[in-house]
Automatic annotation (TrEMBL):
Superkingdom, natural source: Archaea
Presence of the UniProt keyword Ribosomal protein in the record: yes
Keywords in alphabetical order: Ribonucleoprotein, Ribosomal protein
Protein name: Large ribosomal subunit protein eL39
Cited NCBIfam families: PRK01242.1 (NF002316)
One GO MF term: structural constituent of ribosome
Organism: Candidatus Acidianus copahuensis
The keyword Ribonucleoprotein is annotated on this UniProt entry: yes
One Pfam family in the UniProt entry: Ribosomal_L39
HAMAP family hit by this protein: Ribosomal_eL39
GO cellular component, one term: ribosome
UniProt xrefs under PROSITE patterns: RIBOSOMAL_L39E
Length: 51
């Protein structure tokens, strides 16, 4: 990918990068383990972003 990106695309890529994390342990404890995984978590090889 090119080094120079439009700022809108850069913002979307940054948001996707931040959201691609596991949920904190305190959230699992607070919800009584009803919420264990992050639905936005993805692998860069398996699914591509449409940005």
């Amino acid at each position: 990918m090119s080094r120079n990106k439009p700022s809108g695309k850069k913002n979307r890529l940054g948001k996707a990068m931040n959201s691609n994390k596991a949920i904190p342990a305190w959230v699992i404890l607070r919800t009584g383990a009803k919420l264990k995984t992050n639905p936005l978590k993805r692998n860069w090889r398996r699914s591509k972003l449409k940005v």
